[in-house]
């Protein structure tokens, strides 16, 4: 069965996001009334798995092994079936 | 009024996403049965605007002027009110 996993990887609360801060400054410089900018990353992963639970488990393993740094990142996983 | 804009910035269809390809290769190397990986960027922007329409117009202008490259990127904007 084919699944699409959407993974959100973002910095934990309280950690400085230099990219967001830089974007905020640039927007303020362009006269936009912006109070805060936070940037984060999304991944769409197409994978094969036995069922939805298995897919979620696999993607969680991917996050732990490669995609996210558990010291600084939180991640959220959404699984969607692509098969009929 | 305060609004939160969530902006999705992703490469147009058909354009090569080297980051996604690199992640896919790394996952395959770790024995994950992954068929495709697409990566993209999200921004949460807290801004002041008169109403929802005004907020959307402002964020669209930000995208055009700074956040996205119209030649290679598509962007989607969702506006959410933070005021009561």
Automatic annotation (TrEMBL), chains A, B:
It catalyses: N(2)-formyl-N(1)-(5-phospho-beta-D-ribosyl)glycinamide + L-glutamine + ATP + H2O = 2-formamido-N(1)-(5-O-phospho-beta-D-ribosyl)acetamidine + L-glutamate + ADP + phosphate + H(+). Its EC number is 6.3.5.3. SUPFAM superfamilies: PurS-like. Its main location: cytoplasm. It is an enzyme of class 6 (ligase). Pathway: Purine metabolism; IMP biosynthesis via de novo pathway; 5-amino-1-(5-phospho-D-ribosyl)imidazole from N(2)-formyl-N(1)-(5-phospho-D-ribosyl)glycinamide: step 1/2. It holds the Pfam family PurS. One of its GO terms (cellular component) is cytoplasm. GO terms for molecular function: ATP binding; phosphoribosylformylglycinamidine synthase activity. One of its GO terms (biological process) is 'de novo' IMP biosynthetic process. Keywords: ATP-binding, Cytoplasm, Ligase, Nucleotide-binding, Purine biosynthesis. InterPro entries: PurS, PurS-like_sf. It is found in: Cytoplasm. PANTHER family: PHOSPHORIBOSYLFORMYLGLYCINAMIDINE SYNTHASE SUBUNIT PURS (PTHR34696). Part of the phosphoribosylformylglycinamidine synthase complex involved in the purines biosynthetic pathway. Catalyzes the ATP-dependent conversion of formylglycinamide ribonucleotide (FGAR) and glutamine to yield formylglycinamidine ribonucleotide (FGAM) and glutamate. The FGAM synthase complex is composed of three subunits. PurQ produces an ammonia molecule by converting glutamine to glutamate. PurL transfers the ammonia molecule to FGAR to form FGAM in an ATP-dependent manner. Belongs to the PurS family. Part of the FGAM synthase complex composed of 1 PurL, 1 PurQ and 2 PurS subunits. This is Phosphoribosylformylglycinamidine synthase subunit PurS. The gene is purS.
